[in-house]
Every structure is written in C-alpha cells, then in structure tokens.
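haha ok so turns out i had the wrong file open the whole time. this is the CORRECT one, sorry everyone. sequence first:
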Amino acid sequence: MVINMEDVNNNINNTEGYSPEAISNFELAIEEFAESLLAIKSEDANISVFRSLQIIMNGRKRRIGDLGNVESPDDPMKIQLMIYNKEHVQEVLDYIRASGFPAKNEEGSQFIHIRVPKPSRMQLEEIGDDIARRTNSVCTRLTKMKTNTGLRIRAAMEKEFIDQRIANLATKRINDNLDRCTQEVRIIGLMKRKKILGSFFKTVERDDNDLLKIINKRVKLEQKRIENQNQMKIQSEALAKQQEETKEIIHEDVVAG
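then structure:
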C-alpha cells in the first residue's frame, strides 16, 4: 500500500492545529530575521567607531553618539554627523580633526561631514560576529518554539484531545520543518556574513562549508533561470519581429496586386 503524504498532511491539518501553527511561527521568525539583516551594512563599522568616540566636554567624557546623530546616507566613506546642540559643533569638529579625520562644517550648520577610510578587517569581523550571534539566537528561538509546541501536544494527548498517532505525525512534521527552517536561517546568516566580510570572509561555524555548497548550488540555479528567461525573451522578440516583417510583406503584396 502506497501512502500519499499529501493526504496525511491534510489529515493532520484537519485534526490538529499544533503543527501548522508551529510551522507558521518558524517561517515568521525567518522573515523577521532576514528583514533585520537588511539594515546591516559594512559602513556600520565606521558608524560604530564614531558613535563610540569619546570627547572631554565640561570636565566629563561624552560619547559622540550621545551628542549627535551619526549616519552614512550616501557613501560608506562619508560620515554625516548631526550635532544636537549648535554650541557643541565647533568643539566636536576640532576634536574629530585632532583625531586624524578630515572633517568640515558649513557656518551655522549643525552637520559635520567626515571622510573616513575603508573599514578595517577587525571592524568588519565584529559585524560578522554580531551576525553570527543573531543567527544562533534565532536558531535557539526556533528550538524553543518546537519545545513549547511539543509540550502542548503532550498535554493534548494526555487529555485525549488527540490520539498517539496524530501526536506522532504532528511532532514529526514539526521536527522536519524545524530542521528546514533552522538550515534556512543559517544560510541567510552565512550569506550576509560573506557579503559583509568580502575578501576577509572565512568559515567559522561547523556547518559553514556544507551550507556554502547549498548556497553555490542555489546561485547556479538562479543564474540558469535568468539565462533561460533572457533566452526566451530574445526568442520571443525575434519571433514577434519576424511576424511583423511577414505582415509587412503580405501588405506590400496586396497593395502591389
């Protein structure tokens, strides 16, 4: 007898709501993680440095990040510092210049524009380490979701809301999707780390090499898909042009006849 897994999954969905809920939560966690990484850029290294710079003001140390907003809106090599209090602009400007950074300020403006060197390897690795921590944190979160749902399934079985067979099928489905979603989180984190570190990238996690093979395979498949799309577009345009030329020839023959 051949078991149709689609029918089994549909039966689970119709009998219990634990596994669909858990899987939905897994996938939501992946989406939130991917969105959180979009805001992380290599220029964040320079921004972090400037936020942490300390200046002596009125006899006490103050971080630049407490005195103004630090960002890099247009160019990672250009930091834009907006000082909250105009009275502090000149003092902060002098301090930044004394620290060895080219900086300028237009008279009356609260903005200080600073040119910075490319982020160092150490700075980029700090961002990479942060991404790795975030990745592991999300994986831990997924495992907790699975554990909590497992406890609910056990309680439901003890109260005879569901039987052992349904509980086993639901648990297996949750475990399978936990593995899938955990791998996806690690792939997303690895891709971001690789992008941030560039030539400084190196594998650090135990499964990095295996995940890189999956990533490379996906890249090749995506490239192949794009090539096929472009080829189909070229063929379609050539066919459309040929049909148009045929119409023009027929029209000329009709007029001449």
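The helical segments are 5-15, 18-38, 44-52, 64-67, 89-98, 121-158, 164-197, 208-256.
again sry for the mixup
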